[in-house]
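Bench notes, afternoon.
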Amino acid sequence: MIPSTNELLIIFFIIILLFGASKLPELSRSLGKSLGEFKKAQKESDLSLKELEKGEQPKKSKLQQTAENLGISIEGKSDDELMEEIEKTSRK
């Protein structure tokens, strides 16, 4: 169900009342960045799924490759955890 033009104008007016005209550019930027990140993650997951369907090993990210080169185990670790371990290793 797509809202009509009148409904969109009412929604836009309510948003201006709630956030103020000065906050709209900031909200638009953050929404755009969020959508960009979502689309990027969606493309990456689609590529991984296609690689799995073909029976290939999924490609490792640069962060995972760096961690392996430093001798850090990447099994079951998130990117944030890997980043912390890489930073700890580089401080030594």
